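Sample A.
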Amino acid sequence: MNENAPRSICLAILMIASIALPMLDAQMEPPELRDTEVKKEGTINGGQCSGHDACRGTDAGRYYSTAINLTSDFDFDGTNETNVYFGSHSNTAYDYQSAAAVDMFIVDTPPGYGVTATLSWNHTGQGTYDNYAHRLAIGPTSALGYYYYPTSTYGGSWGYCYYSTTGSLSMSTEVGEVTTTNPPYCYFTTSSYENHVDFPHDLAGDPMMIIANCYYCYYYAGNDEYQLEITVWPGDAGLPGDQVQALTGAPILEIGGGWYWGAGGSPSGTSWSSIQDTFTLSAGQEVGLDYQCDYWCPMETAVSLTAPNGTSYSWGVGSLASYSSGNLGAYSGAGTWTLGATDSYGDGGILLTVAESLGSFTGLLTGSAFDMDDKGSGNVGSTDTSDIWAIQIPDGFAANITLDWEANADLDLYVYANGDQTGMIDYSWYDQPEFIDLGGAYANTTVFVKVEYWYWGSIDPSAGYVLWLQLTPSEDPPCWVQNDGGSGGDAGDTTAEPTNVTSVGMEGTLSGKLCEAYDEYDYYLLDVPANYGVWARLDWEPDDGGGGSIYGFNHLWFYMYTASGSYIYGSTSTLRNPHALSTNNSYTWNAQISSASQILLQVRAYDIATDFELNYTVQYAIYDQSVEPTQSSNPDDAGSGQDAGDSLYGTDALGINSMNQTFEGWATTVGTGTTTTSCTCRTTTPCRSN
């Protein structure tokens, strides 16, 4: 036996005793406090916890106006910072949109920060619905719920995730879905939706919401409670830390799109099972290959690229995720390259873009006639003194650049002609914000901007900043000057910002214009008294500008919604011009007709000639929907004093004089609302006979 063993044993006993004796003398925590929810919730930044939700002791609201703002819980000190919150839902049955089933939280980060949110629950394997207990969503402050569809009464998010066999869901502004397994199942907006964002999504100082939604959390005991872990992290252009990205310039070749793609396809409405095209590179020229996928991409789509020397690059079915986008690498080599894609279902589903490589930089700012402002954010400081951005100025545009920040620091702005920071064009040192006006001298050019942290003039060790590019066209693009509905500008582009035209009166005519992609939507709002309905008609010229690319003529869609976004009626048929709508055929409208309300009229461009301003008129009337019009019982169709025939075969058609003329008539059906005895549609149609 080792002679030191007894001594070692004695020393160990003395050490244990020295630790245990003070603990025996300490007061034990009362049993009723050991595992309470308040204890588990802890404190945030040293503050006291008042209970669910998020230590506020109150239920988090289901709208932005009643959401809990968590911003003050974070220091935003240039480091990763995590807070853990607890919450609960009180619904006892399936419910996806009430306050009992939805909790919304606001995080308003400074520029140069991103957000990651992880929702987890007590997953015990009680049954299938344990996996479905909760949904997690992220989105803008305009979101009304977890769903990504923008006009839904519980929609407007950037995306959501659900179903977890481990009881955990995680999303971030960097990648959307943090997990790489399937499940969880996650769904995101596409480019055709007004609330669409690409990931990484640079918040650039804008607030966002995190939405916890009960799916089947009421089904098993204990599943109604959840933990929400939120991390804020510094970064550049939506990526954490000091990262750079491989950037590409103006497209050399673009192929793909598909049936479900929307306006960004090739064109919308085109399906394909195989697509291929070529591009040619000169010696020393390098290009990048970018892609955008639809939902079905991982199940159906493969991509191939063949170099002039025969080298082949391929991405098979399953390589690219749903709704994903990104870069498939940089390529060089003189000669002709071949790019192709296949879709096993035959409806297309990937958009491929070949563009000249700019190199690796913090981020890219650019714009077009569709969007003349672009902004990005980042972080610089004593350990990361500068960021380099590429700025692409389109042909025919003047540009200016603004650098702004909130920290007690001195940041400087430089503009270079080259990515290696040579060929200085201009600089700004002494202002806040810093500002450089490039004018129109650099149209159709890429310039490079450096944001620099000047150590000797700074107090704070780091500073988040916003870099803002503003463009001005040398000549007005389509729909640049508008006077929609007499408003002096463009009518609202979303349900959240319609143009109120109530002042026009109980009936009137509105004039407006739309452009494909430049200005796709116009929304008008009318205040409607109790027991009243709305009739509206949309007219346009189908052949102005030569017609659209899909149908060979211009085509618009026309919709009615309640002010909250509920669908009332719509007209999209290509066989109809004009479109005519009325509220009296709508159960949604009739169910609320006894109260004063509002109505939204949406005019949407579906197929218009490229770069053409299409003028339209909306004629409307607000009428007493509870009173049957005189014309329904005593029609005077075409001034005949009688009702025109009702047979589709013309057997009882009303005879008219054989000459060019315009006539007016009425069509009436019995309504279904509790206060509605009839519904009336009025139409004015030119009639020609020989």
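Sample B, a different protein:
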Amino acid sequence: MDFSDISLSLFRNFPNLTVRIYDLSIENIEPFEGIKLADVKSADVTVDIMSVIRNENPLKIKGINVKQPKINVYVLEDGRANYDIAKPSTDTTAEEAEPADLSAFRANLQGYSIEEGDILYDDESLGAYVSIKGLNHNGSGDFTIDVYDLDTETEIDSLTVSYGGITYLKRAHTALDAIFNIDQKNSKYTLKENVLKLNELELNADGFVQLVDSVNTAMDLTFSTPQNSFKNLLSMIPNAYIAGYENVKADGKFDLGGWVKGTYNGDLEQYPAFQINLGVDNANVKYPDLPLGITNINTKVNVNSPSSNFDDMVVNVPNFAMKLGSNPIKAIFNLKTPISDPDIDTKIDGVLNLKELSQAFPMEGVNDLNGVIAANIEAKTRLSYIENQEYERVNMNGVAEITNLTYKDAIYPAIRINNAKAAFTPQNVRVDNFDAKLGKSDIKANGRVDNILAYFSPKKTMKGSFTVRSNYFDANEWMPQEDASQPALPAAEESAEEIEIFDRFDFTLDATLGEIVYDTYNIKIQW
């Protein structure tokens, strides 16, 4: 830990005493050496000068203010975290000192604030990523009593949240005005008056979270939205909320609500029950700078997980429909027993013209998008029927096809899929005539997936076989470029006993590549 200067002032918040620390930083130790855990422009503590002179208990702290903090939290796949910064003691002979008795010390904190903060949380062990930019937060309450109300205001310029490879929020402007009732003795935190705003969507929540003990967290929360205009919901979709959003024409209604109730215990893999309900009725969207719109948007979504066992969860989408350009798209989806034996009932029928999509919806970072994806698929079966070869009980048929797809973003080389076709049968999903150009590399493939429903269960392995041919493959085009602005993280430690084998795919692969370019190597194979 280091800082550039420290000052005492009676004039900054006269007649109170203010202690200010400048340029506070917390460096890390190996294996995160060189990566700052915290970098703070300044931190102030303002106290009532008379309570210091009189040695009063509780000490009257008028406020704590932190300006421009930058917090970076990294957790590797093996669980090592950069906030674990305590150095192990090398002195094994010294007697352990008696801990100081601070039970009689009390402090009366009237308020605190954070100005222009940035927080990054990147957890590879959970696949979780949270980026907070432009955080301004303040809170006040009587922290000396056992039960008190904490009155807070929070605003975030940009909030990005992703989990498991799915981005749920992308640079969302966030504001929260909330009062929490804090029961310190019982570690219970109850929501009182609160309004959460994400872009244009407002949410209200009620209930509590209680830290029962070191491993159990009880919760009983409900959420809903006071709004019903589809335009408010649309602002939550990544890339939809752009500059000039107030000029977007959107109509239609929506409803959103849900609840979470039960106990979370990570050690026992115990999770609370929850339910989410979403409905959209007769919605239409037209961006002023784009020639096309999306019309006739209707859907119902219900996710119901009634117990701690995710195998009891049911995902039901009895209706999804929209029209993009001249092409309608319709679908239904129902999934039960997703962990033990995925049971699915789904139909998809429609054509997605990607050029029309780029003309109707903002495509940030996409330079070129063309092609057609057509699907007419029906599946009503269980994974166990397929695995046991009870094909008379398997209702699965239809075709999905990609034609003349081109995609080019600002980072990677252009992708062109001339043709790719998947035929769904009771026995398998057969992939025919995959013909693509990935940058400079050519790829042709065909094959099959024998148990496609295993995709829905994290405990199942997808099986199949593929034949791949390529005359030329340039791997260098697809190697990720290092970002000089980001710290280089250490590799996770592995041991023979602790290596987690990724076994979601078990494919037989017959591949022949005529020429491979990798790093400085150019490998040619004679067929």
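Observation for Sample B: The two ends are 61 Å apart (CA to CA).
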